[in-house]
Write a structure and sequence with these properties.
3-stranded antiparallel sheet; Aspartate Aminotransferase, domain 2; Aspartate Aminotransferase, domain 1; 5-stranded mixed sheet; 16 strands; globular; binds ligand F0G; alpha/beta; 2 domains
């Protein structure tokens, strides 16, 4: 376990940041009114949604913790940026602004905008993966793995074991296990491995970061074997903040400096601008080598749009460029992660089993320990997310057996060790009072947990089933 900086820690057990009271580095200029619902209305709504929170109408939701993706509040500057949209089909001004931002903050040479992260995953997978290839990664992400598979590759998990243990307090549970990677290289040969996909932070492990030390070791190893490192840098600023707080030698560096240092250790990245970069839509693929760029910029015109807009309006590219700059401000990141931590600590005080250390983009409730009377094929996390909605109108989502899907060869469910309900925090959207309401609701459901029954799946889509599957109560 890498050394951590003593100075920054109040509590070694929880990895929480020592702090005085803090507040957000912004004030509110406009509000969005919410509809309040009754428990009877919510019971009806979730039944009609097949007990899948993705199928609820957002209007029927009070506090929406479904995702941190595309749900952030843009700043006044970003909204002003929308008015600067140059909606030319080719060569829009905003493309060049975005390209400059990507080069400045991330250091990558070539940029291909895409409509969102998975568009970039498609281009990268189609450009680099050949049938029969192996793509190691630090835990799967749903869309990333699917694009690798659709391109003919097979994903292999090489994350450290601690990542699969919701109670391990390892400060960098996103780390790659170099021994596991080495075993994959020995078994298949480096020629079968077009790249290793490294997510910073690791969403499915609970928003857990990768250390700089681990990335440096990985760079050394992959350089020796001629393997590319492709980042999924969807939440890179959050990862950088954790490095600043936890890793020896980084407490004096800014989030912006650490972000750049991470990118400099890699060959390229896919990016969903809908998270860190504080926009409602957008993403990109960025690479350093011309051949990959050339192939992907040829494919982008098939799947997304011309290579200078890739499925985005000019105004979207402008807002993303501004959001990238805002995302690496230390004060922003402190408030962002601080809010997640505030909620996590409240839940811990109430005795709720959550993934520790508290991650970057949300709180992940351990549904196996919350509902030990349910077996995993009774979909405990799915059932718990439905109950939370009924209790208070708080919308969360399943990250367990439903999200994991089925093995394409055998057709069996994957049974992931982690069966989680994710309370994902939009950026700059909710207040501390909202956090208190959420914590009280989870505590109330916990008090009545023995009454919660499992679910059976009555409709299952072929791809990414968690989005559209439907259930009935057992
Ligand atoms: N990679 C990671 C780590 C993600 O979390 C996501 C999206 C993507 C890639 C794909 O990006 O949505 O822009 O196409 N995660 C969202 C979530 C959907 O709720 O976790 P996208």
């Amino acid at each position: 376990m890498p050394a951590t900086t003593e100075r920054n820690f109040a509590d070694k057990k929880t990895m929480s940041i020592k702090k005085r009271s803090w507040a957000e580095p912004f004030k509110i200029k406009m509000v969005e009114l919410l509809k309040m619902t009754t428990p009877a209305q919510r019971r009806k709504a979730i039944r009609e949604a097949g007990y899948n929170t993705f199928l609820l109408k957002s209007e029927d939701v009070y506090i929406d913790l479904l995702t941190d993706s595309g749900t952030s509040a843009m700043s006044d500057r970003q909204w002003a940026g929308l008015m600067m949209g140059d909606e030319a089909y080719a060569g829009s001004k905003n493309f060049y602004t975005l390209e400059k931002a990507v080069q400045k903050y991330y250091g990558y040479k070539y940029l291909i905008p895409t409509h969102q992260g998975r568009g970039a995953e498609n281009l990268l997978s189609q450009s680099l993966i050949k049938k029969g290839d192996i793509v190691p990664g630090n835990m799967y992400f749903t869309t990333t793995r699917l694009h690798q598979e659709l391109a003919g590759g097979t994903f292999v998990d090489v994350i450290i074991d601690e990542a699969h243990d919701s109670q391990s307090l390892h400060p960098f549970k996103g780390n790659i296990d170099i021994n596991k990677l080495d075993a994959v290289v020995k078994k298949h040969g480096a020629v079968k491995i077009p790249y290793i996909c490294v997510a910073v932070t690791v969403n499915m492990a609970g928003g857990q970061p990768v250390s700089m030390e681990n990335l440096k070791l990985l760079r050394e190893y992959t350089s020796k074997h001629g393997i590319k490192i492709m980042l999924d840098m969807t939440r890179i600023a959050e990862n950088a903040f954790f490095i600043q707080q936890r890793e020896a030698g980084y407490s004096h560096k800014s989030v912006a400096e650490i972000v750049r240092e991470i990118c400099d250790l890699t060959d390229g990245a896919t990016f969903s601008g809908k998270k860190d970069a504080l926009v409602n839509i957008g993403g990109f693929l960025a690479v350093n080598d011309f051949e990959t760029f050339e192939e992907a910029s040829n494919l982008v015109v098939v799947y997304e749009g011309l290579h200078t807009y890739g499925g985005l309006a000019g105004r979207d590219m402008e807002a993303m460029a501004i959001g990238i700059a805002e995302s690496v401000h230390d004060e922003h990141m402190k408030a962002r992660i601080g809010q997640v931590q505030y909620l996590g600590e409240k839940l811990q005080e109430a005795g709720i089993p959550i993934v520790l250390p508290i991650g970057g983009h949300g709180i992940f409730i351990d549904a196996k320990r919350f509902l030990p009377h349910l077996t995993q094929d009774q979909f405990p996390a799915q059932a718990l997310a439905a109950e939370l909605y009924i209790d208070s109108g708080v919308r969360t989502m399943e990250r367990g057996i439903v999200s994991a899907g089925r093995n394409a060869q055998t057709g069996d469910h994957y049974y992931p060790k982690l069966e989680l309900v994710r309370l994902t925090m939009p950026r700059r959207v909710y207040t501390q009072a909202h956090m208190d309401v959420i914590a009280e609701s989870v505590a109330n459901v916990y008090k009545n947990r023995k009454k919660i029954t499992g679910l059976k799946m009555v409709y299952e889509p072929r791809y990414l089933r968690f989005f559209q599957a439907q259930f009935e109560k057992l």
